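Whiteboard transcription, Tuesday session. T.W. wrote the C-alpha coordinates on the left side:
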Protein backbone atom coordinates (compact mmCIF):
# COMPACT_ATOMS: atom_id res chain seq x y z
CA UNK A 1 0.00 0.00 0.00
CA UNK A 2 1.49 3.36 -1.03
CA UNK A 3 1.55 6.37 1.27
CA UNK A 4 -1.13 8.27 -0.66
CA UNK A 5 -3.67 5.45 -0.26
CA UNK A 6 -2.71 4.92 3.38
CA UNK A 7 -3.16 8.63 4.07
CA UNK A 8 -6.64 8.62 2.47
CA UNK A 9 -7.64 5.59 4.54
CA UNK A 10 -6.35 7.18 7.76
CA UNK A 11 -8.15 10.49 7.10
CA UNK A 12 -11.38 8.64 6.23
CA UNK A 13 -11.22 6.56 9.41
CA UNK A 14 -10.43 9.65 11.46
CA UNK A 15 -13.53 11.48 10.21
CA UNK A 16 -15.70 8.71 11.73
CA UNK A 17 -13.67 8.29 14.92
CA UNK A 18 -15.66 8.83 18.13
CA UNK A 19 -13.46 7.41 20.88
CA UNK A 20 -9.90 7.71 22.13
CA UNK A 21 -9.43 3.95 21.72
CA UNK A 22 -10.27 4.18 18.00
CA UNK A 23 -7.94 7.18 17.62
CA UNK A 24 -5.13 5.08 19.12
CA UNK A 25 -5.79 2.31 16.61
CA UNK A 26 -5.79 4.75 13.67
CA UNK A 27 -2.55 6.29 14.97
CA UNK A 28 -0.98 2.81 15.23
CA UNK A 29 -1.96 2.07 11.62
CA UNK A 30 -0.52 5.44 10.55
CA UNK A 31 2.78 4.64 12.29
CA UNK A 32 2.92 1.26 10.60
CA UNK A 33 2.37 2.75 7.14
CA UNK A 34 4.58 5.83 7.71
CA UNK A 35 1.68 8.31 7.47
CA UNK A 36 2.24 9.59 11.04
CA UNK A 37 5.08 11.90 9.93
CA UNK A 38 2.87 13.65 7.38
CA UNK A 39 1.99 17.15 8.73
CA UNK A 40 -1.53 17.04 7.27
CA UNK A 41 -2.46 13.78 9.00
CA UNK A 42 -0.66 14.77 12.22
CA UNK A 43 -2.58 18.05 12.31
CA UNK A 44 -5.92 16.33 11.67
CA UNK A 45 -5.24 13.72 14.37
CA UNK A 46 -4.26 16.43 16.82
CA UNK A 47 -7.39 18.47 16.02
CA UNK A 48 -9.66 15.46 16.39
CA UNK A 49 -8.09 14.43 19.70
CA UNK A 50 -8.13 17.95 21.15
CA UNK A 51 -11.62 19.01 20.07
CA UNK A 52 -13.82 16.12 18.93
CA UNK A 53 -13.01 13.30 21.40
CA UNK A 54 -13.84 13.46 25.08
CA UNK A 55 -10.81 12.86 27.30
CA UNK A 56 -8.52 13.21 24.28
CA UNK A 57 -6.68 16.38 25.33
CA UNK A 58 -3.86 14.65 27.17
CA UNK A 59 -3.33 12.42 24.14
CA UNK A 60 -3.24 15.52 21.91
CA UNK A 61 -0.62 17.07 24.20
CA UNK A 62 1.59 13.97 23.86
CA UNK A 63 1.12 13.99 20.07
CA UNK A 64 2.37 17.58 19.90
CA UNK A 65 5.38 16.89 22.11
CA UNK A 66 6.48 13.95 19.94
CA UNK A 67 6.02 15.63 16.56
CA UNK A 68 9.47 16.84 15.36
CA UNK A 69 8.56 20.27 13.98
CA UNK A 70 5.06 21.33 15.08
CA UNK A 71 3.72 24.37 13.26
CA UNK A 72 1.46 27.21 14.43
CA UNK A 73 -1.67 25.30 13.41
CA UNK A 74 -0.79 22.43 15.74
CA UNK A 75 -0.09 24.74 18.67
CA UNK A 76 -3.29 26.71 18.01
CA UNK A 77 -5.28 23.47 17.93
CA UNK A 78 -4.03 22.45 21.37
CA UNK A 79 -4.59 25.96 22.75
CA UNK A 80 -8.15 25.83 21.42
CA UNK A 81 -8.77 22.44 23.01
CA UNK A 82 -7.52 23.59 26.41
CA UNK A 83 -9.45 26.88 26.24
CA UNK A 84 -12.71 24.92 25.85
CA UNK A 85 -11.84 22.36 28.53
CA UNK A 86 -12.45 22.23 32.28
CA UNK A 87 -8.90 23.42 32.85
CA UNK A 88 -8.31 26.47 30.59
CA UNK A 89 -5.07 27.34 32.45
CA UNK A 90 -3.27 24.79 30.26
CA UNK A 91 -3.98 27.01 27.25
CA UNK A 92 -1.68 29.67 28.74
CA UNK A 93 1.11 27.11 29.27
CA UNK A 94 0.85 25.96 25.63
CA UNK A 95 0.79 29.58 24.43
CA UNK A 96 3.98 30.32 26.42
CA UNK A 97 5.65 27.18 25.08
CA UNK A 98 4.80 28.26 21.53
CA UNK A 99 6.38 31.65 22.22
CA UNK A 100 9.45 30.13 23.91
CA UNK A 101 10.18 27.74 21.05
CA UNK A 102 9.61 30.49 18.48
CA UNK A 103 7.80 28.04 16.24
CA UNK A 104 6.36 30.80 14.14
CA UNK A 105 4.75 34.20 14.54
CA UNK A 106 1.59 34.26 16.59
CA UNK A 107 -1.43 34.66 14.36
CA UNK A 108 -5.00 35.78 14.96
CA UNK A 109 -6.04 32.26 15.96
CA UNK A 110 -3.35 32.04 18.65
CA UNK A 111 -4.64 35.18 20.37
CA UNK A 112 -8.33 34.40 19.87
CA UNK A 113 -8.06 30.92 21.39
CA UNK A 114 -5.97 31.94 24.39
CA UNK A 115 -8.25 34.96 24.97
CA UNK A 116 -11.15 32.51 25.15
CA UNK A 117 -9.29 30.70 27.93
CA UNK A 118 -8.89 34.01 29.79
CA UNK A 119 -12.61 34.69 29.31
CA UNK A 120 -13.59 31.26 30.65
CA UNK A 121 -11.40 31.89 33.71
CA UNK A 122 -12.66 35.51 33.93
CA UNK A 123 -9.03 36.49 34.40
CA UNK A 124 -8.97 40.20 33.54
CA UNK A 125 -5.24 40.65 34.14
CA UNK A 126 -4.23 37.87 31.74
CA UNK A 127 -6.66 39.14 29.09
CA UNK A 128 -5.34 42.70 29.31
CA UNK A 129 -1.77 41.43 28.88
CA UNK A 130 -2.85 39.47 25.81
CA UNK A 131 -4.62 42.57 24.48
CA UNK A 132 -1.33 44.48 24.83
CA UNK A 133 0.55 41.77 22.93
CA UNK A 134 -2.08 41.84 20.19
CA UNK A 135 -1.67 45.63 20.00
CA UNK A 136 2.10 45.25 19.63
CA UNK A 137 1.60 42.87 16.72
CA UNK A 138 -1.15 44.94 15.08
CA UNK A 139 -3.74 42.22 15.61
CA UNK A 140 -6.10 44.05 17.95
CA UNK A 141 -8.36 45.31 15.15
CA UNK A 142 -8.28 41.98 13.34
CA UNK A 143 -11.92 40.94 13.09
CA UNK A 144 -11.47 37.55 14.81
CA UNK A 145 -9.25 38.87 17.61
CA UNK A 146 -11.31 42.03 18.11
CA UNK A 147 -14.55 40.06 18.37
CA UNK A 148 -12.97 37.69 20.89
CA UNK A 149 -11.74 40.68 22.93
CA UNK A 150 -15.31 42.02 23.06
CA UNK A 151 -16.53 38.67 24.41
CA UNK A 152 -13.62 38.51 26.86
CA UNK A 153 -14.34 41.93 28.38
CA UNK A 154 -18.04 41.07 28.59
CA UNK A 155 -17.26 37.86 30.51
CA UNK A 156 -15.20 39.94 32.95
CA UNK A 157 -18.06 42.44 33.35
CA UNK A 158 -16.19 45.30 31.64
CA UNK A 159 -18.86 46.56 29.26
CA UNK A 160 -17.14 49.92 28.72
CA UNK A 161 -13.97 48.20 27.46
CA UNK A 162 -16.05 45.91 25.25
CA UNK A 163 -17.78 48.93 23.69
CA UNK A 164 -14.43 50.67 23.08
CA UNK A 165 -13.10 47.53 21.43
CA UNK A 166 -16.18 47.39 19.20
CA UNK A 167 -15.74 51.06 18.18
CA UNK A 168 -12.11 50.37 17.15
CA UNK A 169 -13.06 47.66 14.64
CA UNK A 170 -13.35 49.36 11.23
CA UNK A 171 -15.85 47.02 9.59
CA UNK A 172 -17.63 44.85 12.14
CA UNK A 173 -19.48 41.88 10.67
CA UNK A 174 -22.61 40.14 11.95
CA UNK A 175 -20.59 38.04 14.41
CA UNK A 176 -19.02 41.18 15.90
CA UNK A 177 -22.40 42.91 16.21
CA UNK A 178 -23.79 39.84 17.95
CA UNK A 179 -20.79 39.79 20.30
CA UNK A 180 -21.37 43.38 21.48
CA UNK A 181 -25.12 42.71 21.72
CA UNK A 182 -24.37 39.70 23.93
CA UNK A 183 -21.98 41.86 25.98
CA UNK A 184 -24.75 44.36 26.77
CA UNK A 185 -27.13 41.69 28.02
CA UNK A 186 -24.42 39.81 29.90
CA UNK A 187 -23.52 42.98 31.77
CA UNK A 188 -27.16 43.82 32.50
CA UNK A 189 -27.49 46.78 30.11
CA UNK A 190 -30.89 45.96 28.62
CA UNK A 191 -31.49 49.45 27.23
CA UNK A 192 -28.08 49.46 25.55
CA UNK A 193 -28.77 46.05 24.06
CA UNK A 194 -32.14 47.16 22.72
CA UNK A 195 -30.58 50.28 21.15
CA UNK A 196 -27.83 48.18 19.52
CA UNK A 197 -30.37 45.72 18.18
CA UNK A 198 -32.24 48.55 16.45
CA UNK A 199 -28.96 49.89 14.99
CA UNK A 200 -27.77 46.57 13.60
CA UNK A 201 -27.37 46.75 9.80
CA UNK A 202 -28.22 43.07 9.45
CA UNK A 203 -29.97 40.90 12.01
CA UNK A 204 -29.51 37.18 11.64
CA UNK A 205 -31.11 34.38 13.63
CA UNK A 206 -28.32 34.55 16.23
CA UNK A 207 -29.16 38.23 16.87
CA UNK A 208 -32.77 37.34 17.72
CA UNK A 209 -31.65 34.43 19.90
CA UNK A 210 -29.28 36.73 21.80
CA UNK A 211 -32.20 39.08 22.51
CA UNK A 212 -34.30 36.17 23.78
CA UNK A 213 -31.50 34.87 26.02
CA UNK A 214 -30.82 38.36 27.36
CA UNK A 215 -34.43 39.00 28.31
CA UNK A 216 -35.03 35.63 29.98
CA UNK A 217 -31.78 35.94 31.92
CA UNK A 218 -32.97 39.32 33.21
CA UNK A 219 -36.36 37.84 34.09
CA UNK A 220 -38.13 40.00 31.51
CA UNK A 221 -40.32 37.18 30.29
CA UNK A 222 -43.00 39.28 28.62
CA UNK A 223 -40.36 41.16 26.61
CA UNK A 224 -38.88 37.81 25.61
CA UNK A 225 -42.33 36.62 24.56
CA UNK A 226 -42.80 39.73 22.36
CA UNK A 227 -39.42 39.25 20.68
CA UNK A 228 -40.21 35.55 20.13
CA UNK A 229 -43.50 36.44 18.42
CA UNK A 230 -41.69 38.95 16.14
CA UNK A 231 -38.99 36.51 15.00
CA UNK A 232 -39.17 35.83 11.26
CA UNK A 233 -37.61 32.38 11.73
CA UNK A 234 -37.15 30.26 14.87
CA UNK A 235 -34.60 27.50 15.41
CA UNK A 236 -33.93 24.91 18.12
CA UNK A 237 -32.06 27.51 20.17
CA UNK A 238 -35.05 29.89 20.08
CA UNK A 239 -37.49 27.28 21.39
CA UNK A 240 -35.14 25.84 24.01
CA UNK A 241 -34.27 29.36 25.23
CA UNK A 242 -37.94 30.10 25.91
CA UNK A 243 -38.68 26.72 27.51
CA UNK A 244 -35.57 26.67 29.71
CA UNK A 245 -35.81 30.41 30.47
CA UNK A 246 -39.43 30.26 31.62
CA UNK A 247 -38.65 27.17 33.68
CA UNK A 248 -35.67 28.81 35.40
CA UNK A 249 -37.78 31.87 36.19
CA UNK A 250 -40.39 29.60 37.83
CA UNK A 251 -43.00 30.39 35.17
CA UNK A 252 -43.78 26.73 34.68
CA UNK A 253 -47.06 27.11 32.82
CA UNK A 254 -45.18 29.27 30.30
CA UNK A 255 -42.59 26.52 29.79
CA UNK A 256 -45.36 23.96 29.25
CA UNK A 257 -47.13 26.33 26.85
CA UNK A 258 -44.06 26.78 24.65
CA UNK A 259 -43.41 23.04 24.62
CA UNK A 260 -46.98 22.40 23.48
CA UNK A 261 -46.61 25.12 20.83
CA UNK A 262 -43.38 23.51 19.65
CA UNK A 263 -45.16 20.19 19.23
CA UNK A 264 -48.19 21.79 17.52
CA UNK A 265 -45.81 23.33 14.99
CA UNK A 266 -44.73 19.78 14.11
CA UNK A 267 -41.17 20.34 15.34
CA UNK A 268 -39.03 17.83 17.19
CA UNK A 269 -37.62 19.13 20.50
CA UNK A 270 -33.88 18.99 20.99
CA UNK A 271 -32.11 17.73 24.11
CA UNK A 272 -32.06 21.19 25.74
CA UNK A 273 -35.77 21.94 25.29
CA UNK A 274 -36.74 18.45 26.41
CA UNK A 275 -34.63 18.51 29.58
CA UNK A 276 -35.90 22.07 30.16
CA UNK A 277 -39.58 21.06 30.15
CA UNK A 278 -38.78 17.98 32.25
CA UNK A 279 -37.10 20.30 34.76
CA UNK A 280 -40.18 22.57 34.77
CA UNK A 281 -42.40 19.57 35.53
CA UNK A 282 -40.03 18.55 38.33
CA UNK A 283 -39.98 21.99 39.95
CA UNK A 284 -43.75 22.45 39.67
CA UNK A 285 -44.50 18.93 40.87
CA UNK A 286 -46.69 18.51 37.77
CA UNK A 287 -47.05 14.72 37.92
CA UNK A 288 -49.79 14.35 35.29
CA UNK A 289 -47.87 16.43 32.75
CA UNK A 290 -44.74 14.47 33.70
CA UNK A 291 -46.40 11.19 32.69
CA UNK A 292 -47.35 12.67 29.30
CA UNK A 293 -43.75 13.80 28.79
CA UNK A 294 -42.45 10.36 29.71
CA UNK A 295 -44.70 8.80 27.06
CA UNK A 296 -43.46 11.30 24.47
CA UNK A 297 -39.81 10.60 25.36
CA UNK A 298 -40.33 6.87 24.81
CA UNK A 299 -42.23 7.26 21.53
CA UNK A 300 -39.82 9.86 20.13
CA UNK A 301 -36.79 7.67 20.87
CA UNK A 302 -34.98 9.93 23.33
CA UNK A 303 -34.23 7.22 25.89
CA UNK A 304 -30.75 6.68 24.42
CA UNK A 305 -29.73 10.04 25.94
CA UNK A 306 -28.44 9.62 29.48
CA UNK A 307 -29.23 13.30 30.22
CA UNK A 308 -32.91 12.72 29.37
CA UNK A 309 -33.03 9.62 31.58
CA UNK A 310 -31.50 11.59 34.42
CA UNK A 311 -34.03 14.39 33.91
CA UNK A 312 -36.90 11.83 33.97
CA UNK A 313 -35.56 10.34 37.19
CA UNK A 314 -35.24 13.78 38.80
CA UNK A 315 -38.71 14.76 37.56
CA UNK A 316 -40.47 11.77 39.12
CA UNK A 317 -38.52 12.21 42.33
CA UNK A 318 -39.49 15.86 42.70
CA UNK A 319 -43.10 15.07 41.73
CA UNK A 320 -43.22 12.85 44.81
CA UNK A 321 -43.21 9.46 43.09
CA UNK A 322 -39.99 7.78 44.15
CA UNK A 323 -41.31 4.46 42.80
CA UNK A 324 -41.38 5.77 39.23
CA UNK A 325 -37.96 7.38 39.75
CA UNK A 326 -36.66 4.00 40.84
CA UNK A 327 -38.25 2.33 37.79
CA UNK A 328 -36.57 4.83 35.40
CA UNK A 329 -33.24 4.22 37.12
CA UNK A 330 -33.51 0.42 37.02
CA UNK A 331 -34.67 0.23 33.37
CA UNK A 332 -32.14 2.66 31.86
CA UNK A 333 -30.91 1.16 28.59
CA UNK A 334 -27.85 3.42 28.48
CA UNK A 335 -24.93 3.16 30.86
CA UNK A 336 -25.71 4.93 34.12
CA UNK A 337 -23.51 7.96 34.74
CA UNK A 338 -22.40 9.19 38.15
CA UNK A 339 -25.22 11.77 37.81
CA UNK A 340 -27.73 8.90 37.47
CA UNK A 341 -26.52 7.19 40.66
CA UNK A 342 -26.27 10.43 42.60
CA UNK A 343 -29.74 11.57 41.49
CA UNK A 344 -31.29 8.29 42.65
CA UNK A 345 -29.51 8.48 46.00
CA UNK A 346 -30.72 12.07 46.39
CA UNK A 347 -34.28 11.01 45.48
CA UNK A 348 -34.30 8.36 48.20
CA UNK A 349 -32.82 10.86 50.65
CA UNK A 350 -35.50 13.47 49.91
CA UNK A 351 -38.23 10.91 50.61
CA UNK A 352 -36.69 9.75 53.88
CA UNK A 353 -35.43 6.35 52.67
CA UNK A 354 -32.08 6.67 54.39
CA UNK A 355 -31.29 2.95 54.65
CA UNK A 356 -32.16 2.35 50.97
CA UNK A 357 -30.03 5.33 49.92
CA UNK A 358 -27.10 3.78 51.79
CA UNK A 359 -27.64 0.40 50.09
CA UNK A 360 -27.69 2.08 46.68
CA UNK A 361 -24.49 3.95 47.55
CA UNK A 362 -22.74 0.61 48.19
CA UNK A 363 -24.20 -0.85 45.00
CA UNK A 364 -22.77 2.13 43.12
CA UNK A 365 -19.33 1.38 44.57
CA UNK A 366 -19.69 -2.30 43.63
CA UNK A 367 -20.41 -1.14 40.04
CA UNK A 368 -16.97 0.53 40.07
CA UNK A 369 -18.44 4.03 39.89
CA UNK A 370 -16.32 6.21 42.13
CA UNK A 371 -18.48 8.60 44.18
CA UNK A 372 -17.62 12.28 43.93
CA UNK A 373 -18.21 15.18 46.30
CA UNK A 374 -21.82 15.64 45.16
CA UNK A 375 -22.58 11.96 45.79
CA UNK A 376 -21.32 12.32 49.35
CA UNK A 377 -23.52 15.40 49.84
CA UNK A 378 -26.52 13.24 48.84
CA UNK A 379 -25.61 10.40 51.21
CA UNK A 380 -24.95 12.81 54.09
CA UNK A 381 -28.31 14.44 53.34
CA UNK A 382 -29.94 10.99 53.51
CA UNK A 383 -28.37 10.30 56.89
CA UNK A 384 -29.42 13.72 58.18
CA UNK A 385 -33.08 13.33 57.23
CA UNK A 386 -33.26 9.78 58.57
CA UNK A 387 -31.55 10.67 61.86
CA UNK A 388 -28.60 8.35 61.15
CA UNK A 389 -25.93 10.25 63.08
CA UNK A 390 -23.29 7.52 63.39
CA UNK A 391 -23.66 6.52 59.74
CA UNK A 392 -23.34 10.15 58.63
CA UNK A 393 -20.14 10.62 60.59
CA UNK A 394 -18.76 7.40 59.12
CA UNK A 395 -19.46 8.48 55.54
CA UNK A 396 -17.88 11.87 56.17
CA UNK A 397 -14.68 10.11 57.30
CA UNK A 398 -14.88 7.72 54.35
CA UNK A 399 -15.06 10.67 51.95
CA UNK A 400 -11.86 12.14 53.38
CA UNK A 401 -10.14 8.73 53.25
CA UNK A 402 -11.05 8.44 49.56
CA UNK A 403 -9.14 11.65 48.81
CA UNK A 404 -12.05 14.08 48.50
CA UNK A 405 -11.44 17.30 50.37
CA UNK A 406 -14.60 18.37 52.22
CA UNK A 407 -16.23 21.56 50.96
CA UNK A 408 -18.38 23.99 52.90
CA UNK A 409 -21.45 22.04 51.70
CA UNK A 410 -20.19 18.82 53.30
CA UNK A 411 -19.57 20.58 56.60
CA UNK A 412 -23.04 22.09 56.30
CA UNK A 413 -24.52 18.58 55.99
CA UNK A 414 -22.79 17.57 59.23
CA UNK A 415 -24.11 20.67 61.02
CA UNK A 416 -27.58 19.78 59.76
CA UNK A 417 -27.11 16.16 60.86
CA UNK A 418 -26.42 17.17 64.46
CA UNK A 419 -28.91 20.04 64.46
CA UNK A 420 -31.89 17.99 63.24
CA UNK A 421 -31.17 15.37 65.89
CA UNK A 422 -31.32 18.07 68.57
CA UNK A 423 -27.61 17.86 69.37
CA UNK A 424 -27.35 21.63 69.16
CA UNK A 425 -24.29 22.17 71.34
CA UNK A 426 -22.37 19.56 69.34
CA UNK A 427 -23.50 21.26 66.12
CA UNK A 428 -22.33 24.63 67.48
CA UNK A 429 -18.93 23.26 68.58
CA UNK A 430 -18.54 21.54 65.21
CA UNK A 431 -19.25 24.80 63.37
CA UNK A 432 -16.74 26.72 65.49
CA UNK A 433 -14.03 24.08 64.96
CA UNK A 434 -14.40 23.64 61.20
CA UNK A 435 -11.04 23.82 59.35
CA UNK A 436 -12.56 26.30 56.90
CA UNK A 437 -14.42 29.43 57.94
CA UNK A 438 -18.17 28.76 58.20
CA UNK A 439 -20.21 30.87 55.83
CA UNK A 440 -23.64 32.42 56.36
CA UNK A 441 -25.38 29.24 55.19
CA UNK A 442 -23.53 27.18 57.84
CA UNK A 443 -24.67 29.47 60.65
CA UNK A 444 -28.16 29.74 59.14
CA UNK A 445 -28.50 25.96 59.18
CA UNK A 446 -27.64 25.97 62.88
CA UNK A 447 -29.98 28.90 63.58
CA UNK A 448 -32.81 26.97 61.90
CA UNK A 449 -32.14 24.00 64.19
CA UNK A 450 -32.14 26.28 67.24
CA UNK A 451 -35.46 27.75 66.10
CA UNK A 452 -36.94 24.28 65.53
CA UNK A 453 -35.92 23.04 68.98
CA UNK A 454 -36.60 26.35 70.77
CA UNK A 455 -33.05 26.88 72.09
CA UNK A 456 -33.08 30.67 72.53
CA UNK A 457 -29.71 31.01 74.29
CA UNK A 458 -27.80 29.24 71.53
CA UNK A 459 -29.88 30.99 68.84
CA UNK A 460 -28.70 34.37 70.16
CA UNK A 461 -25.05 33.28 70.06
CA UNK A 462 -25.46 31.97 66.51
CA UNK A 463 -27.30 35.15 65.54
CA UNK A 464 -24.31 37.28 66.51
CA UNK A 465 -22.02 35.25 64.22
CA UNK A 466 -24.53 35.19 61.39
CA UNK A 467 -25.40 38.87 61.45
CA UNK A 468 -21.69 39.72 61.09
CA UNK A 469 -21.64 37.87 57.76
CA UNK A 470 -25.09 38.71 56.36
CA UNK A 471 -26.82 41.39 58.46
CA UNK A 472 -29.59 42.19 55.98
CA UNK A 473 -31.00 38.71 55.40
CA UNK A 474 -34.67 38.81 56.37
CA UNK A 475 -34.87 35.01 56.73
CA UNK A 476 -32.31 35.04 59.55
CA UNK A 477 -34.31 37.62 61.49
CA UNK A 478 -37.43 35.48 61.02
CA UNK A 479 -35.61 32.38 62.35
CA UNK A 480 -34.50 34.29 65.44
CA UNK A 481 -38.00 35.68 65.94
CA UNK A 482 -39.36 32.14 65.62
CA UNK A 483 -36.99 30.86 68.31
CA UNK A 484 -38.20 33.60 70.68
CA UNK A 485 -41.84 32.91 69.85
CA UNK A 486 -41.55 29.14 70.39
CA UNK A 487 -40.16 29.96 73.85
CA UNK A 488 -43.05 32.49 74.26
CA UNK A 489 -40.63 35.39 74.64
CA UNK A 490 -43.01 37.71 72.86
CA UNK A 491 -41.23 40.96 73.67
CA UNK A 492 -37.98 39.70 72.15
CA UNK A 493 -39.83 38.34 69.11
CA UNK A 494 -41.62 41.67 68.67
CA UNK A 495 -38.30 43.54 68.93
CA UNK A 496 -36.84 41.49 66.08
CA UNK A 497 -39.94 42.06 63.94
CA UNK A 498 -39.84 45.77 64.73
CA UNK A 499 -36.19 45.90 63.71
CA UNK A 500 -37.14 44.24 60.40
CA UNK A 501 -39.79 46.89 59.77
CA UNK A 502 -37.40 49.71 60.59
CA UNK A 503 -34.84 48.28 58.17
CA UNK A 504 -37.61 47.70 55.61
CA UNK A 505 -36.92 43.99 55.43
CA UNK A 506 -39.62 41.84 53.89
CA UNK A 507 -40.23 38.20 54.74
CA UNK A 508 -40.42 35.87 51.76
CA UNK A 509 -44.12 35.09 51.27
CA UNK A 510 -45.14 31.46 51.48
CA UNK A 511 -46.71 29.93 48.38
CA UNK A 512 -47.89 26.48 47.38
CA UNK A 513 -48.58 24.96 43.96
CA UNK A 514 -50.83 22.13 42.88
CA UNK A 515 -51.44 20.55 39.47
CA UNK A 516 -55.08 19.98 38.51
CA UNK A 517 -56.07 18.76 35.04
CA UNK A 518 -52.52 19.41 33.77
CA UNK A 519 -52.65 23.06 34.87
CA UNK A 520 -50.56 24.41 37.76
CA UNK A 521 -52.33 26.63 40.32
CA UNK A 522 -50.48 28.75 42.86
CA UNK A 523 -51.80 29.90 46.25
CA UNK A 524 -50.45 32.48 48.65
CA UNK A 525 -51.74 33.25 52.14
CA UNK A 526 -53.51 36.59 52.33
CA UNK A 527 -53.65 37.08 48.55
CA UNK A 528 -56.54 38.97 46.99
CA UNK A 529 -59.63 36.88 46.51
CA UNK A 530 -60.41 35.62 43.03
CA UNK A 531 -62.68 32.83 41.82
CA UNK A 532 -60.00 30.17 42.34
CA UNK A 533 -59.11 31.45 45.84
CA UNK A 534 -62.78 31.72 46.83
CA UNK A 535 -63.34 28.13 45.76
CA UNK A 536 -60.33 27.03 47.83
CA UNK A 537 -61.44 29.02 50.91
CA UNK A 538 -64.99 27.62 50.66
CA UNK A 539 -63.79 24.02 50.49
CA UNK A 540 -61.23 24.62 53.26
CA UNK A 541 -63.92 25.91 55.62
CA UNK A 542 -65.89 22.71 55.04
CA UNK A 543 -62.80 20.56 55.60
CA UNK A 544 -61.80 22.27 58.86
CA UNK A 545 -65.31 21.83 60.32
CA UNK A 546 -65.20 18.12 59.50
CA UNK A 547 -61.72 17.72 60.99
CA UNK A 548 -62.87 19.30 64.24
CA UNK A 549 -65.98 17.12 64.40
CA UNK A 550 -64.52 13.77 63.25
CA UNK A 551 -60.79 14.09 63.70
CA UNK A 552 -60.58 15.98 66.97
CA UNK A 553 -58.55 18.74 65.36
CA UNK A 554 -57.20 21.41 67.69
CA UNK A 555 -55.17 24.18 66.03
CA UNK A 556 -51.43 24.12 66.75
CA UNK A 557 -51.32 27.87 67.40
CA UNK A 558 -47.63 27.80 68.30
CA UNK A 559 -47.12 27.82 64.53
CA UNK A 560 -48.24 31.46 64.58
CA UNK A 561 -45.26 33.27 65.98
CA UNK A 562 -46.90 36.50 67.08
CA UNK A 563 -48.27 37.65 70.41
CA UNK A 564 -51.93 37.87 69.37
CA UNK A 565 -55.14 36.38 70.69
CA UNK A 566 -55.66 32.62 70.21
CA UNK A 567 -58.74 33.19 68.04
CA UNK A 568 -56.69 35.36 65.68
CA UNK A 569 -53.94 32.73 65.63
CA UNK A 570 -56.42 30.03 64.67
CA UNK A 571 -57.62 32.18 61.78
CA UNK A 572 -54.02 32.83 60.73
CA UNK A 573 -52.96 29.17 60.54
CA UNK A 574 -56.14 28.31 58.65
CA UNK A 575 -55.07 30.56 55.78
CA UNK A 576 -51.68 28.95 55.13
CA UNK A 577 -51.05 28.36 51.42
CA UNK A 578 -50.63 24.58 51.63
CA UNK A 579 -54.07 24.25 53.25
CA UNK A 580 -55.61 26.29 50.42
CA UNK A 581 -53.84 24.13 47.82
CA UNK A 582 -55.07 20.91 49.46
CA UNK A 583 -58.63 22.25 49.66
CA UNK A 584 -58.57 23.25 46.00
CA UNK A 585 -57.25 19.82 45.04
CA UNK A 586 -60.00 18.09 47.01
CA UNK A 587 -62.61 20.32 45.32
CA UNK A 588 -61.36 19.71 41.79
CA UNK A 589 -59.57 16.34 41.65
CA UNK A 590 -61.39 13.08 41.04
CA UNK A 591 -62.03 10.91 44.07
CA UNK A 592 -59.14 8.55 44.73
CA UNK A 593 -56.54 10.82 43.10
CA UNK A 594 -53.43 11.62 45.11
CA UNK A 595 -52.91 15.27 46.01
CA UNK A 596 -49.40 16.59 45.31
CA UNK A 597 -48.28 19.98 46.56
CA UNK A 598 -45.03 21.95 46.20
CA UNK A 599 -44.29 24.57 48.88
CA UNK A 600 -41.44 27.09 48.89
CA UNK A 601 -41.05 27.18 52.69
CA UNK A 602 -40.95 24.58 55.44
CA UNK A 603 -44.37 23.14 56.30
CA UNK A 604 -45.53 24.34 59.73
CA UNK A 605 -46.60 22.02 62.55
CA UNK A 606 -50.29 22.90 62.27
CA UNK A 607 -50.36 22.22 58.52
CA UNK A 608 -48.54 18.95 59.18
CA UNK A 609 -51.25 17.93 61.68
CA UNK A 610 -54.03 18.98 59.26
CA UNK A 611 -52.53 16.95 56.39
CA UNK A 612 -52.36 13.84 58.57
CA UNK A 613 -55.97 14.29 59.68
CA UNK A 614 -57.23 14.88 56.11
CA UNK A 615 -55.46 11.70 54.95
CA UNK A 616 -57.19 9.79 57.78
CA UNK A 617 -60.68 11.35 57.72
CA UNK A 618 -61.05 11.58 53.93
CA UNK A 619 -58.94 8.53 53.03
CA UNK A 620 -56.80 10.49 50.56
CA UNK A 621 -53.02 10.36 50.06
CA UNK A 622 -51.27 13.73 50.19
CA UNK A 623 -47.66 14.39 49.15
CA UNK A 624 -46.09 17.71 50.15
CA UNK A 625 -42.66 18.77 48.95
CA UNK A 626 -41.47 21.60 51.16
CA UNK A 627 -38.15 23.42 51.19
CA UNK A 628 -36.56 20.67 53.23
CA UNK A 629 -37.97 17.29 52.19
CA UNK A 630 -40.99 15.23 51.12
CA UNK A 631 -43.91 14.42 53.41
CA UNK A 632 -46.21 11.57 52.33
CA UNK A 633 -49.41 11.56 54.37
CA UNK A 634 -51.33 8.25 54.36
CA UNK A 635 -54.04 7.10 56.79
CA UNK A 636 -53.09 9.61 59.46
CA UNK A 637 -49.31 9.15 59.39
CA UNK A 638 -46.41 10.86 57.62
CA UNK A 639 -43.32 9.39 55.96
CA UNK A 640 -41.15 11.78 57.96
CA UNK A 641 -42.41 10.08 61.14
CA UNK A 642 -42.65 13.62 62.53
CA UNK A 643 -38.82 13.72 62.43
CA UNK A 644 -38.11 17.04 60.76
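and on the right, the sequence the group agreed on:
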Amino acid sequence: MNNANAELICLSLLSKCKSLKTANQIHAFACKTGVDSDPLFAGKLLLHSAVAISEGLDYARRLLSHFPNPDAFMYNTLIRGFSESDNPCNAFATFKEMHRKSVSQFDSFSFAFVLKAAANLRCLQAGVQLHCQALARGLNTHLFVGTTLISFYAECGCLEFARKMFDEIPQPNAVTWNAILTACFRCGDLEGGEALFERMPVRNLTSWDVMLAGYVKAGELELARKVFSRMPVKDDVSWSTMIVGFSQNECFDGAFEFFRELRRAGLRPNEASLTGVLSASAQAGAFEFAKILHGFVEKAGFLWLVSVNNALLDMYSKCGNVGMARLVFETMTVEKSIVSWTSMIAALAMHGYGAEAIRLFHKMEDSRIRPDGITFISILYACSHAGLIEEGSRYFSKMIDSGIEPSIEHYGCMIDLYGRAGKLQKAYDYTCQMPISPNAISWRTLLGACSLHGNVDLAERVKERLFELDPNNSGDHVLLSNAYAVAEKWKDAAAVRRSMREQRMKKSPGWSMIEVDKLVYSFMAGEKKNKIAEEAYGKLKEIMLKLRAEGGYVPEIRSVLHDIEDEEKEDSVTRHSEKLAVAFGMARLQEGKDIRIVKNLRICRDCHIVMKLISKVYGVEIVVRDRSRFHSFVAGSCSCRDYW
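Someone added at the bottom: Residues 511-638 form one domain.
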